[in-house]
Each structure stands twice: as C-alpha cells, then as structure tokens.
Write a structure and sequence with these properties.
20 strands; binds calcium ion; eight-stranded parallel β-barrel
Length: about 625
C-alpha cells in the first residue's frame, strides 16, 4: 500500500509540474452539461490520492434494511480494456495489483455493465474513443466478469458512438435503410452479437435495447419506427439468451409525466420487455423521493421491474487527467453530498436504499466507476494515449461521425473524479459501500435519508369502472366468457400466489394441443363523455404459438388491440389501451382474447387486474 501511495504522490507531483500552460480541454459525456475546467485548479488539489487510504477505517455506511439477496449491485466499466492498454492498473485495499473485475467482485459487485457500439472506428480502423466499445470489447470484459462470478449487462446503443437524449445517430452501415430493412439489420446484429457472447461463455443477466432512448434510437425519432426496432432487439435477446432480462432505458425522471409517457407508448405497442431502466444522477435528475414515486408508478401500472441503470457521485471536485470533468467545483448543480469518498458512498447507498423501497426495484448500476486518468502525466502524453487506445471520451477520429460534439471537444475522461479508484489506481474507501450495505459499517447515527414511498392518502383508490375487475368476488359475473376451445379448465380461481392482486384470478389450462381459445370481456354503458384507459394483465406458459391481445370495442366493433405474451410463471404482461373515447350513447366493451396453438404440454395461464378508469 505504501508503495502505491508513493507512486501516487510522484504522479501528483508530475501533474502539478506539468499543469501550467496546458489547454483546458472540455469533454462531454453523457451530455453537454459541463463547463471548461481551468487546469490551474489542479494545483490547488490536496493530495486526494493518499487521503482516502488514511480515512479507510472511518468510512461509514448506513445499513439498508431488507435489501433483497438478489439485488443487482452493478458497475459499468466499459472503458476498462482501453484503460489497461493505456497503462492503467488497479490495486485492492492491500495495495495488490489485480484484475479490476476481481477487485469489484471481491467488494460485492454482482453485475458488470458494458455499452456496445456497432462500429466505433473510422475508415482507417482508428477508434472513436470512449473505450472503443464494440462487441469484441464486451466479449473480453464479459468473459472476465463471468470468470469472477458476475453477470454481464449488455447495453446496446445501436449507434457507432455515444447515444443519449442529445443524439441517437444511426450506425454508418444502416444509413439510408428503410425501416423494414433497418429492423432486420438490428435483429441480425443483436442476434449475432449475443451469439458471440454466448459462444464465448459469457453469463449475460440483462440486455438493454437502446440507451437513454427518450428522443429516439438508431437515427429514428418516430415511435412508430422505434417500436419495431426495439421489438426486433428484444426478440433476438429472447432467442439467444432466454434466461436474460430485456431492459429499456430512459432518463430525466425529474420531468413530470416523462416515464408514464414512455411506458404507455411501449405498452400500447406491445413491446416485450422486463425492466424499465432509469438513469439517476442526483446532480441533474431531481430528488430520490421523485425517483421512488415515478418508478413505483411504472411497476404498479405496467407490471415491469424497475432499476437505476446509471448513477454516480464525485469523490473529489478535482480533475486528474487534464481533461475537464462533467461535474467540478464550479458546477451549478444539486449537491446533496460532499465531493468525497464518504459522500460518494452515501450517494450510492441512498440510491440503492431508494430503489429497494420500490416494488419491483431490482438493482442499481454505477456508471464508469474505474475510468481514471491514463498515466501520461501531461496533457500531451495523455492525449497520445487517448488517441492511440481510445481511453478518452472521444478521439479526434470520431470527428467524421460526430463532428459537432466529439469533433470539437474530443479528449480524456470527464468522469475520473467519479471513479472508485484514485489516479494511481488504488481503490478508494468508498468502494466498501457495496459489501457494507446489508450489515452497515461504522457510524449508524446518520438519519435515514430515504423516505418510503408516500401513500396517496387523499387520493381515493382509482375508480374502476369495471365490476369485479380483479375477480375478487370469486364469481365470473359480470364478465362474459366466450369459450371456443375444447374443454379443460377455465374458471375463476382462488390462489393468492397465482394472482396479480388479491386472492382470485381467471385461470385457464388445457392438456390438449390447439385447445385454449376464448374471449373474456365486460361491457360498460352510460359512460360520461371523456377519455378512458383500460389495462389488464396475464401470465402463463407452455402455450406454443399464441394469439393473445387486449381489445376495446365500441358498440360491439373492435377499435383497438394490444398484443400480449405469456412466457413463464409470475412474469405478468400488462396491456394498456388509453385514449379510448366512446361517443355519446355508445357501449364500451373491454376484454382479452387468448388462443394457444399448444404443443400438448398443457397451455395454462392466469388473468387478473382489469382496470378501466377515466383519464384526466
Ligand atoms: Ca478529467
């Protein structure tokens, strides 16, 4: 450990000696919310490189109550290979040089996340930087993660470089394609990429179809085109890694109604996915209370798991690689915690505690926790490494693809002050947070800063215009069942474990092939003029080819449908049809159609939680 500290101090001295007269470089991932950072500030830096080691025994982590055993404690280390190629090494708490992934596994990290770009290279094969994160990069990182018992989260950007709310540029190879061709290309690309990981023995736990797709994906901005692209990605995941979760990923949870808007689009488009992921950077993205509320709504109303895909916090305000940082001492952003290892640990702990309070909250992933400075010691030397190995956020070679952002501001790491490692690669105390969550560590007197979700006391339970929409009377009435199948079981059943809410649900089962075929519907009349929203949930399995959809009829004519799917037990699929506007005097019928061309294994399923409400 001493040796590492000395090297760190020498490195710092080198930084200070060479700092004067350097250009202040600006870098810009994930978006342009930074200001240029005068390098002079580096000179005022305390030797942060050694301080954390001294405070190790003092780090406190407030215990998180009732954290599920399988809660995902993730870390994005997409830049790892480029960092290593640039000479970066990582050291554990004993000062031992180790594989970064081993250090993370030993400290309680369960999942490794890695972004994937289609082709982050120019015509001469020179990398765009940001880790040059193609699928080969994901394979290397994934194999090492698997070796140390962690699962991989694959984050397809479906672009050749950074994709976020500011840009979702089409991969070069897909430029000019019509949507059918592009959808097929995305399917093939996803399938082949995942097959490469599968053949390489990578344990993939989750796959994201798109990254922060608020404003588009793969060059498309129209949801009529984005939806089939996402569906193609999802289908490829199901085929190659059926055991993995399919995730979507959005950001800006602080924008009122944002997530409900996206979740509605996905539900109405019938997208097959499991996890609604959110970025949550406390300096940009509002309060934890708001995060808890919007994620709780997504789980409650759409039946999806929720997760924070990206979060982070600075352990220091200082830049350490001569390339300005996204968050620094002058950033005018929310500052809930000090910029220190303790502040970083507190932020991580509190976000985990927040997600753990959300029903269906399955995990939190830290973003780029090891993207520290390359060891050049000057801007010129570092820049040469960033250009050669892609270890900066962008190289000059990205200019052809992204002239307005990367082309102007290419440079090093904008995130080195948010890593869990000091500039010499020594693990910071804050890395202890993951292994300390369940038991707590040190001072436990800090007040619990994360409040449980606020119950909407004044709000009455959502008015359900359906009678017996949850089947809790134990009767079928007033539902109408139109059975076109061949017997088997089809009735309202009492079994709490198989119900989405309450104790009762509609049950079906038939051991014969091609046997399940029914409509279940309810008609409502005398509705006040206005707009209505219908949702219904189903789970089941062993169904072979299915034709399942929720539908809405006006005066007996089907006017809208949403496809639904059954996969396995307890994996509920919720359909949402909104904007239903019955004319005056029209009757409204809502229902679900289930047809299974069963394989003879015994198609079965459960239907529950039908809800018809006025929309405000
Ligand atoms: Ca930097």
């Amino acid at each position: 450990m001493k040796r590492r500290t000395w090297i760190a101090l020498l490195l710092l001295a080198a930084l200070l000696l060479t700092a004067c007269g350097e250009n202040a470089e600006q870098s810009a991932e994930p978006s342009a919310e930074q200001t240029p950072q005068p390098v002079e500030e580096t000179q005022q830096e305390e030797p942060a490189v050694s301080a954390p080691i001294e405070t190790k025994e003092e780090l406190s982590v407030l215990k998180v109550e009732n954290l599920p055993e399988d809660f995902i404690l993730g870390m994005d280390v997409s830049s790892l290979i480029a960092e290593e190629q640039s000479g970066v090494r990582y050291y554990d708490f004993d000062g031992q040089e180790k594989d970064l992934l081993q250090i993370l596994a030993e400290n309680g990290v369960t999942h490794i996340r890695v972004r994937v770009w289609n082709e982050p290279y120019d015509a001469q094969g020179r990398g765009y930087g940001g880790g040059n994160c193609d699928i080969e990069n994901a394979l290397q990182i994934g194999q090492r993660a698997t070796q140390f018992g962690m699962k991989l989260i694959v984050d397809f950007h479906y672009s050749d470089f950074w994709a976020d709310p500011g840009k979702q540029m089409v991969p070069k190879a897909w430029e000019g394609m019509d949507i059918e061709t592009k959808t097929a290309a995305l399917y093939d690309y996803t399938r082949e990429s995942l097959q490469l990981l599968r053949d390489g023995g990578v344990d993939v736990g989750m796959v994201q179809v798109g990254n922060e797709t608020n404003n588009g994906m793969a060059g498309e901005t129209d949801w009529d085109k984005i939806l089939p692209l996402m569906a193609a990605g999802s289908r490829a995941v199901r085929e190659v890694y059926p055991e993995a979760l399919v995730a979507v990923h959005f950001t800006e949870p602080q924008n009122n109604g944002n997530y409900r808007y996206f979740a509605d689009i996905l539900a109405q488009g019938g997208l097959d996915y499991d996890v609604f992921g959110s970025s949550y950077y406390p300096f940009w993205h509002g309060t934890r209370e708001n995060l808890i509320q919007v994620l709780t709504e997504i789980n409650r109303d759409y039946g999806k798991y929720v997760m924070v895909m990206e979060t982070s916090w600075p352990y220091t305000p200082e830049d350490t690689d001569f390339s300005g940082n996204s968050i620094n001492a002058d950033s005018s952003v929310a500052r809930d915690y000090p910029y220190s290892p303790q502040g970083q640990a507190d932020e991580v702990r509190d976000v985990i505690a927040a997600v753990a309070l959300v029903p269906g909250g399955i995990g939190v992933c830290y973003w780029e926790g090891a993207w520290i400075t390359v060891p050049g010691g000057s801007w010129e030397a570092n820049s040469a490494l960033w250009e050669q190995y892609g270890s900066g956020w962008a190289s000059s070679f990205a200019a052809e693809y992204d002239p307005n952002d990367a082309g102007k501001w290419y440079g090093g790491s904008s995130w080195d002050n948010q890593a869990f490692f000091d500039p010499a690669g020594q693990a910071l105390d804050s890395l202890l947070v993951f292994s300390s969550l369940r038991e707590g560590r040190g001072d436990q007197n800090r007040p619990e800063p994360v409040a449980a979700p606020v119950e909407e006391e004044e709000a009455e339970p959502a008015l359900n215009l359906l009678v017996n929409g949850d089947f809790e009377t134990g009767e079928l009435s007033p539902w109408e069942l139109i059975d076109q199948g061949s017997g088997g079981e089809l009735f309202v059943e009492q079994k709490t474990a198989d119900s989405r809410d309450g104790d009762w649900h509609m049950h079906f089962w038939n051991p014969n092939p091609d046997s399940v075929d029914f409509f279940l519907e309810q008609t409502v009349t005398d509705l006040a003029p206005g707009s209505y929203r219908f949702s219904i949930s189903i789970m089941g399995g062993d169904c072979g080819e299915t034709e399942i959809y929720a539908y809405v009829k006006l005066d007996g004519e089907i006017v809208a449908t949403v496809p639904m799917e059954i996969t396995t037990w307890n994996n509920w699929d919720t359909a949402v049809l909104s904007g239903i506007e019955p004319g005056e005097g029209q009757s409204l019928t809502v229902g679900i159609r289930v047809k299974c061309q069963g394989t003879g294994a015994g198609a079965w399923g459960k239907i529950d939680s039908a809800l018809l409400t006025p929309e405000s």
